Amino acid sequence: MNNNNNIVKICISSTGEDLNANVDPRFGRCDYFLIIDPNTKKFESIDNKSSKAMGGAGIQAAELVAKTGAKVVITGNVGPNAFQTLKAAGIKIITGASGNIKDILDKFNRGELNEIDSPSVESHFGMNYKGGENR
Q1: What domain range is 50 assigned to?
Q2: pLDDT tens track for 14-70
Q3: DSSP notation for the chain
């Protein structure tokens, strides 16, 4: 993904509401989505209301992100339902991201992050996520 200059909006799953937060390893159950213009670094924080859903969190989260107009999602992991929904919306997916969002944004702008072509985890990943581990 070296041609990132024409991307207008990206979405990063986040543990907080600004660029100082960390990437949330869970897409569907992350606390927030940061919708960012990678060129200007202007952003909008969106509360992920589907994070507490009993089921279907990935699909609901993917539909929310698609409505923002984001063309790329950057996250730690994405399950099969969210993956299919994002792909159907024409959104590129990058997983394996961790650490500070500013650092991840810089890596994205340098073309150091790669799109995936399949889900990175199975269904229901992150449902019982507590402080850094799945239980």
Answers
A1: 10-121
A2: 999 999 999 999 999 999 999 999 999 999 999 999 998 888 899 999 999 999 999
A3: ----TT---EEEEESSSSTTSBBPSBSTT-SEEEEE-TTT--EEEEE-GGGG-SS-HHHHHHHHHHHHT-SEEE-SB--HHHHHHHHHTT-EEE----SBHHHHHHHHHTT-----SS-SS-TTTTTTEETTEE-
Domains in the chain, number: 1
Is residue 130 domain-resident? Answer: no
What the block records as the tokens of 40 is 């200007």
Tens digits of residue pLDDT in 84-119: 999 999 999 999 999 999 999 999 999 999 999 888
Q: Has residue 132 been placed in a domain?
A: no
Q: What is the CATH number of the domain that holds 36?
A: 3.30.420.130
Position 131 in a domain: no
Distances from the Cα of 19 to the Cα of 3, 16, 128, angstroms: 22, 8, 26
Assess if residue 110 is contained within a domain. yes
